[in-house]
Specification:
The chain is mostly helical. 50% of the residues lie in helices and 0% in strands. Helix 2 runs parallel beside helix 4. It is rod-shaped and about 150 Å long. The N and C termini lie far apart (153 Å). The relative contact order is 0.08.
Length: 220
């Protein structure tokens, strides 16, 4: 036998041996898997999970309820409506359903637009009553208080402050400590300069609230 033939026999023997070994290993793997090739379901499923939602913060500053200061205009309206017999609850300057119903009832009784809300015009109408109705037809407010005289402005201011519930003391035209404290309380509520004295700013604010022009009564 020649060298070439011997090499061919060796290669054939080597290839046959390798094939036998490969088949033996493959059959062994199949027996270990129950005679079946592993299916896709035998592998653990991999699912994509959505990212967890960020927790909602409840400690953010600024979420707390803010304290609301009483409204002096609303407080005056509540006080005057109570004096007229309307049920407004507490005259505390805070709006609630009872106060809104009382304002609406008054507006309806006066043939006014029913809003249920306080206003300077509403307070002026409550305070002056029929004189406002007369001014609506004439275009001018009827004169309030006595004719100009010595201390006429002080007396008129005392009268208006008393109507608004600020207790200025006797309506005598005398500028005493009680009247000064009442003026200062009104100035504080209306957020104007607190002087405790009759000033142009005070007279303008009283006119805004009541419609009365007290400046024309100023003493010389």
């Amino acid at each position: 036998m020649g060298i070439a033939a011997a090499r061919l026999v060796f290669l054939a023997f080597f290839g046959l041996t390798g094939l036998i070994i490969y088949n033996a290993l493959y059959l062994q793997d199949l027996r270990g898997a129950g005679g079946r090739a592993p299916s896709a379901s035998s592998y653990p499923a991999v699912t994509a999970s959505a990212p967890a939602a960020a927790p909602v913060r409840t400690d953010v500053p600024g979420n707390s309820m803010q304290t609301v200061s009483p409204d002096p205009l609303l407080k005056a309206v509540q006080r005057e409506l109570t004096a007229l017999g309307y049920v407004v609850g507490r005259a505390d300057g805070e709006m609630d359903a009872t106060t809104r119903d009382a304002i609406s009832a008054y507006q309806k009784s006066q043939d006014l637009p029913v809003t249920g809300l306080p206003s300077d015009d509403l307070l002026r109408r409550i305070l002056l009553g029929d004189s406002i109705a007369d001014s609506d037809s004439t275009g001018a407010l009827s004169a309030a208080g006595p004719a100009p005289e010595q201390d006429g402005t002080v007396k008129s201011v005392q009268q208006v402050l008393a109507e608004l519930g600020y207790s200025p003391g006797p309506i005598d035209g005398a500028m005493g400590g009680t009247t000064a404290r009442a003026i200062k309380a009104f100035q504080h509520d209306r957020k104007i300069t607190e002087t405790g004295r009759i000033t142009p700013e005070l007279l303008a604010e009283l006119k805004q609230v009541t419609g009365r022009d007290l400046a024309q009564l100023a003493t010389q």
